[in-house]
Request: fold
Amino acid sequence: MARYTGSSCRLCRRVGEKLMLKGERCGTPKCSIERNPGTPGQHTGGRPRKLSEYGVRLKEKQKARYTYGVLERQFRRMFADAERAPGMTGETLVQLLERRLDNTVYRLGLGESRNQARQLVQHGHIKVNGRKVDIPSFVVKPGDVITWREKTINKDPYNRAMQGIDSKVIPSWLSVDKKDLSCRVLSLPSNDEIAAKFDLKMIVEHYSR
Reply:
């Protein structure tokens, strides 16, 4: 399965803002963009470049991709699905991104970052409606029940999630039973609650040019 394997901090520096790709670490002085906010690259001198209109739209699209850990081909396919669906394309796109299983596990507070949540899914720790699902791009729907596999309950990932769940803020479209970390998808995510760090209108314009 293809995925980005480079430095997460480099992606934040590339777009010039924090994308919270390392979870809580991004809010500490250890964050790379705090220590070295310049643009990465040997010949850039750390100076931000003046962007064309195309560059501005591309940057917004890249921020969305980097935030959710999606490669270009996947992202383009999701945009095409959103374009075919009824309603506003941008809103549908961000709902599809939010409903990816790896992002849902992250939003539920079971992983400290989307990368960690993706690993939990890929390593077979998560079940959806009683069946193991190890595909991070699996799209959940209202009514789905997300639980841990029985073999995982006595292992470190489950114990860490159990210890930290009280400090997590769970969005209203999801619910978590803090006794056993069983979870349910209650509804579709609302745009107001997602608080995207990217401009959906510009992403639509980028693919519609």
Observations:
- The mean pLDDT is 85.
- Strands lie at 126-128, 131-132, 145-148, 174-177, 182-185.
- The domain at 8-95+197-208 is CATH 1.10.1050.10 (Ribosomal Protein S4 Delta 41; Chain A, domain 1).
- The radius of gyration is 18 Å.
